[in-house]
UniProtKB/TrEMBL annotation:
<comment type="similarity">
    <text>Belongs to the small GTPase superfamily. Rho family.</text>
</comment>
<dbReference type="InterPro" id="IPR001806">
    <property type="entry name" value="Small_GTPase"/>
</dbReference>
<dbReference type="GO" id="GO:0005525">
    <property type="term" value="F:GTP binding"/>
</dbReference>
<keyword id="KW-0547">Nucleotide-binding</keyword>
<dbReference type="Pfam" id="PF00071">
    <property type="entry name" value="Ras"/>
</dbReference>
<dbReference type="InterPro" id="IPR005225">
    <property type="entry name" value="Small_GTP-bd"/>
</dbReference>
<dbReference type="GO" id="GO:0003924">
    <property type="term" value="F:GTPase activity"/>
</dbReference>
<dbReference type="GO" id="GO:0007264">
    <property type="term" value="P:small GTPase-mediated signal transduction"/>
</dbReference>
<dbReference type="InterPro" id="IPR003578">
    <property type="entry name" value="Small_GTPase_Rho"/>
</dbReference>
<protein>
    <recommendedName>
        <fullName>Small GTPase RacB</fullName>
    </recommendedName>
</protein>
<keyword id="KW-0449">Lipoprotein</keyword>
<dbReference type="InterPro" id="IPR027417">
    <property type="entry name" value="P-loop_NTPase"/>
</dbReference>
<keyword id="KW-0342">GTP-binding</keyword>
Length: 189
């Protein structure tokens, strides 16, 4: 019997894109019906201390969040397939942060809320929801050099297992890197 291996998989992405639902759906095969923001989602509170107003908000979490990145074997970077802002933040916010704090760690790009992308009633009720196409997701995968791109629905369980299978596979069977051989030359300065 072979020894089991621990893999540290960190899930990141904008608040309310479905990270917690994805994790709960994968681990318990159930979909949570209530939104429960997790520790690094968008929180903000103004507190008065000794007559001074102190804002405890996103800035503090932005500073603390990277502490969870240490030792990560793989990242699952999630965006919502019905949120153009979360899609854009992949390149504006998340990739710069991951490249800074965890360079070289593989990333599985995940489009969440697949069940809502083609839900005409949901889209009619939420005119600000701008669906992201599979082609846009694939293009983003190439742009950020992600190991894979998967669209899923935590609610219907569609492709949820595939997300984590891809994360495990990229750690246990990393893609071969094309190393260019340096030409043996001589430089005279």
């Amino acid at each position: 019997m072979s020894a089991s291996r621990f893999i540290k998989c960190v899930t990141v992405g904008d608040g309310a894109v479905g990270k917690t639902c994805l994790l709960i759906s994968y681990t318990s095969n159930t979909f949570p019906t209530d939104y429960v923001p997790t520790v690094f989602d968008n929180f903000s509170a103004n507190v008065v201390v000794d007559g001074s107003t102190v804002n405890l908000g996103q800035e503090d979490y932005n500073r603390l969040r990277p502490l969870s990145y240490r030792g990560a074997d793989v990242f699952i970077l999630a965006f919502s397939l019905i949120s153009k802002a979360s899609y854009e933040n992949v390149t504006k916010k998340w990739i710069p942060e991951l490249n800074h704090y965890a360079p070289g760690v593989p990333i599985v790009l995940v489009g969440t809320k697949l069940d809502l992308r083609d839900d005409s009633q949901y889209l009619a009720d939420h005119p600000s929801a701008l669906p992201i196409s599979t082609a846009q997701g694939e293009e983003l995968k190439k742009q950020i050099e992600s190991s894979s791109y998967i669209e899923c629905s935590a609610k219907s369980q569609q492709n949820v297992k595939a997300v984590f299978d891809a994360a495990i596979k990229v750690v246990l069977q990393p893609p071969k890197k094309n190393k260019k051989k340096k030409s043996g030359g001589c430089s005279i300065l």
